[in-house]
Amino acid sequence: MAWFFLFCAGLVEVAWAVGLKYTAGFTRLWPSVFTVAGGLTSFFLLAQAARALPIGTAYAVWTGIGAVGTAVLGMILFDEPRDWVRLACIGLVVVGVVGLRLASTR
Q1: By C-alpha distance, which of 37, 63, 36 is closest to 50?
Q2: If DSSP codes are grouped into helix, strand and coil, which group holds residue 1?
Q3: How far apart are CA 24 and CA 59, in angstroms?
Q4: Would you state the pLDDT for residue 105?
Q5: What is the pTM of this model?
Q6: Number of domains into which the chain is organized
Q7: Alpha-carbon torsion 102, 105, 56, 14, what sign?
Q8: Domain extent at residue 36
Q9: Among 22, 26, 38, 93, which has the highest number of CB atoms less than 10 A from its own CB?
C-alpha cells in the first residue's frame, strides 16, 4: 500500500507543479487554491508512504515522478524544448526511480 500512496503522491505533485504555471504567481484565485490543495495532498500522501518506506527512497521516488511528469507535461502543454539531451536526462531519472523501486525490499 505504501508504494500506491507514493505513486499517487507523485501524480498529485505533477498536478500542483503544473498548476503553478496557471496561478500566474498566485494572482489567480482558483488555480492558486487548487495548486495549494494539491501540494498539501501530495505531502500528506508522501507522509503516509514514508511510514513504511525508507524516507530517502520515498522522497527520491516522489521527486522523480514529479520531475519527469512535470517536464513531460511542460513539453506538451507549454511547448517547452524537446531536444535529445533533455529527453535523455528525463530517461535517466526514470531509470533511477525504477532502480530504487527494484532495490526496495518493501
Answers
A1: 63
A2: coil
A3: 27
A4: 66
A5: 0.90
A6: 1
A7: positive
A8: 2-103
A9: 38
